[in-house]
Amino acid sequence: EDALKKAAVLAASEINPYKMDDWIENGPDEDFEDTKGHLQLILDNTPFLQNIYLVRVDKEGFHTLCVLTTNDQEVRKHARMHPSDIEFGEVFPFDPSLGKTNSALLVGGDVDIVEIKNDDGWTLIAYEPIYTHLNECKGYVGVEVSLNGINGYINTFTVWVSIISIIFLCLIGPQIKSGHGCSDFEILLICLL
To answer: Which of these, 65, 58, 56, lies nearest to 86 by C-alpha position?
Structure first.
């Protein structure tokens, strides 16, 4: 959770709070595209992150400025949202399952990490407010990670470690046995230790 929060803080630091209203009223400009590029770099260089999005929150809900999805295909298949599904300025109503989080977002406050259960499993979301120098909240950066995505990496890692161990046993085991007169059981114990 700490890494997720740090990624959200880093992403929020890339946003110019004074451009948020302009982007919503007039649409994307060159600064907006540069900002999206910086957010994509953060997303692609932070392990397990699946989405970063930029939103303004008001009584209607979340006004979406952008949604970015990782380029990592293994993580991407667990993403709740895909940029092609969401248009600039699209409004999403508050999710009743977020409870008190909705109220905190509406007043521009700090928000604890949110856990959401969906069809694909659990997703953790860190929201980081984007403040002006006068401490006025102009919006939020949301950063998501899927626990299923992390499990996928762990499973892949486990398979590779197993394959490398088997190759090691097959290639090195007979050499150890012939050089030291060890039994097959002793070779297995040596390799496992």
So the answer is: 65
The pLDDT of 47-66, averaged and rounded, is 88
Backbone φ and ψ for 142, nearest 5 degrees, come out as -110, 135
Helical pair 2-13 and 30-44, crossing angle rounded to 10 deg: 160
Most distant CA pair in the chain: distance in Å?
79
Residue 76, token pair as written in the block: 């991407």
pLDDT above 90: residue 79: no
Both tokens of residue 175? 């050499």
User: Residue 141 gets which letter from DSSP?
Assistant: E
C-alpha triplet 170, 174, 175: angle, nearest 5°: 115
Q: Where are the beta strands (DSSP E) in 11-60?
A: 49-58
98 vs 114: CA distance, rounded Å: 8
Burial class (CB in 10 A: 0-12, 13-18, 19+), 100: exposed
The whole-number pLDDT of residue 84 equals 58
pLDDT at 70: 76
Q: Are strands 137-146 and 49-58 parallel, antiparallel or unpaired?
A: antiparallel
- Find out whether 97 and 67 touch, Cβ atoms under 8 Å: no
Tokens 């740090």 correspond to 6
Res. 117: pLDDT tops 80: no
- Which ranges constitute the DSSP H helices of 45-183? 73-76, 100-106, 147-180
- Rounded to an integer, what is the distance from CA 104 to the centroid of its chain? 22
- Nearest-CA neighbor of 16 among 43, 35, 38? 35
